[in-house]
Amino acid sequence: MNQGKSERAVGYALIGFERLVTQDRVNAYADASGDHNPIHLDEAYAAATQFGTRIAHGMLSLALVTEMLAIEFPNTWHSGGKLKVRFTAPIIPGESVTTYGEITAIDEIHDGKRILRVATCIVGCKKPDGTDAVSGRATVPLE
Amino acid sequence: MASPLISTAVVGHEFGPYDVTIPVERARAYAAAIGGDESPDYGNHLAPVMVVAAALTELINELGLFSGGLQAVHAGQEVSWERRIEIGEKVDASGRLVSNSVRRGNHFATIAVSYTDAGRTEVGTSSTTIIVTGEQSQ
Question: Is residue A103 part of a domain?
Answer without folding.
Answer: yes
